[in-house]
Design a protein that fits this description.
By secondary structure, the chain is an alpha+beta fold. The chain has helices at 87-96, 116-123, 137-154, 159-162, 173-180, 187-193, 198-209, 213-230, 236-239, 248-259, and strands spanning 3-9, 12-17, 22-27, 31-38, 40-45, 48-53, 57-60, 65-71, 78-85, 110-111. The chain folds into two domains: 3-162, Jelly Rolls (Sandwich); 173-259, Arc Repressor Mutant, subunit A. Helix 8 (213-230) packs across helix 10.
Length: 268
């Protein structure tokens, strides 16, 4: 059945995956509050990997790269309720609730496990998905403001994330690419996150790395895969998604072309 998304409001949705797994390198344009109803989620950010199970609640900051892999579990689909905390809605909220914002470097996704206040708030959305018509805006606004208020109650630093409306500025290309090369993003997105137009990104990349972005990305991903397989003794099927490849056979072909042997072979 694949992936299904049911919206009851532009900012409220129910997401379902029935396949063996679903993997995506994501860059959200707005904050997402996610309640995992069933299934299991693996998140890779930088050199760290996190696992979450049914009942866990996560907040994904906008403009942050993460790899998300969703798995069905115990015969149930991977299902989650998602609330979009848009820039406009947060701007309106913080125009009323004034705060002094401190810079956070870098903002990372947050976990709230199964906090009863958030769980109750998000669980109360489920009956709305039985409606035959869209959820009225005034009710959606009440529920989203309730969630924001709960977040502020249980996390004293959350205002510094939610009330920060700055866009990415120009940053070190070397530092950013070395940290984020395993993410399957378009060149436009890489440019945006480093504070550059596409043309400037390609020009600066060539000047910095003496090669094209695509060639450099492929080699870096293969080198990481080689390390994971040879040194960490991991299977190619466990590694290829994490390092930025979408297809196992294509990964195997590229690996052999670079190193002279297949990832399943033991030759060094």
């Amino acid at each position: 059945m694949g992936h299904q998304t049911q919206y009851i409001h532009p900012d409220l949705k129910l997401s379902r995956f029935d396949d063996t797994f679903y993997k995506a390198d994501v860059l959200f344009e707005q904050h997402l509050l996610v309640w995992l109803i069933s299934g299991e989620t693996k998140i890779v950010q930088g050199d760290k990997t996190y696992w979450f199970s049914a009942g866990d609640i996560l907040l994904f900051p906008r403009n942050q790269l993460v790899t998300v892999i969703n798995y069905p579990k115990y015969g149930q689909p991977h299902q989650s309720a998602v609330m979009h905390l848009t820039k406009k809605r947060l701007t309106d909220f913080y125009n009323v609730n004034k705060v002094e914002v401190k810079q956070m470097h870098p903002p990372i996704f947050r976990t709230f496990e199964q906090h009863p206040l958030l769980k109750s708030c998000l669980h109360s959305l489920i009956p709305y998905f039985e409606l035959q018509e869209p959820l009225p805006e005034n009710i959606a606004s009440i529920k989203i403001e309730e969630a924001i208020t709960i977040l502020r109650t249980i996390d004293r630093d959350i205002d510094h994330l939610l009330a920060n409306f700055d866009e990415p500025g120009k940053i070190s290309l070397t530092d950013f690419m070395e940290k984020n090369y395993m993410f399957n993003m378009s060149m436009d997105k890489f440019g945006y996150l480093t504070g550059r137009s596409l043309t400037t990104f390609k020009r600066d990349f060539k000047k910095t790395f003496q090669t094209t972005p695509q060639k450099w990305l492929t080699e870096k991903r293969l080198d990481l895969a080689h390390y994971q397989i040879r040194e960490k003794k991991r299977k190619p099927s466990e590694v290829y998604l994490e390092v930025g490849f979408e297809n196992l056979s294509h990964f195997g072909f590229a690996f052999k072309r670079r190193f002279g042997y297949a990832p399943t072979e033991t030759a060094g």
